[in-house]
């Protein structure tokens, strides 16, 4: 159900940029550009590296510390490791924990979209995210679902995505290879997890 909600969000965004939030001229399916005051500051002149990078680092640090040192973080890790055991223990309300995690994840995804708009595109338009949610799955799997490591794997995949166009122009390597690499990462990580479980058992 959570993945299917992606389509609800996509079509809702398409509705608002074709309707109530469409730019004043009514020509393109996008909003009017945001004001300069609302844009994130650039950290390095001549690049697109903006303050959103620092926000991402801060969010990763907060999540890591919260999961590592708080009571609720312990509950999240327990439910993630074994939902049935957490429920049977009677000390953890698994459904409440799952609901809070789902809502928090959605809020963080919304924050990421807001950073993209205020730091890169400066407007909301149809098709703003070309499948980044699925890339995020590969990033999280490669990081072993660890919030701190997600920062580094995110940089790795970000470099792949950013270099895909240049790789195609300069070396003639199809940009689709990046998607293939991401798919292979998911397959290898899942296969490794299954092997560990089988031999661990």
Give the arrangement of secondary structure elements.
Layout (H helix, E strand, L loop, with lengths): L4 H14 L33 H18 L1 H11 L1 H7 L4 H28 L10 H11 L4 H25 L4 H25 L1
Helix pairs in contact: 2-3, 2-7, 3-4, 3-5, 6-7, 6-8, 7-8
Report the mean per-residue pLDDT as an integer.
87
Task: State the helical fraction.
Answer: 55-70%
Sheet with the most strands?
none
From the N-terminal CA to the C-terminal CA, the straight-line distance is 31 Å
Taken from the alpha-carbon principal axes, the silhouette is globular
Overall radius of gyration: 20 Å
Alpha-beta classification = mainly alpha
Number of domains: 2
Q: Would you kindly provide a written description of the structure presented here, covering whatever features stand out?
A:
By secondary structure, the protein is mainly α. The chain folds into two domains: 1-129, no CATH class; 131-201, no CATH class. It has eight helices and no strands. The protein has helices at 5-18, 52-69, 71-81, 83-89, 94-121, 132-142, 147-171, 176-200. The chain is globular and about 60 Å long. The relative contact order is 0.09.
In brief, what are we looking at here?
With 201 residues, the chain is mainly alpha-helical. The protein has helices spanning 5-18, 52-69, 71-81, 83-89, 94-121, 132-142, 147-171, 176-200. The protein is 69% helix and 0% strand.
Keywords summarizing the entry:
201 residues; mainly alpha; 2 domains; 8 helices; globular
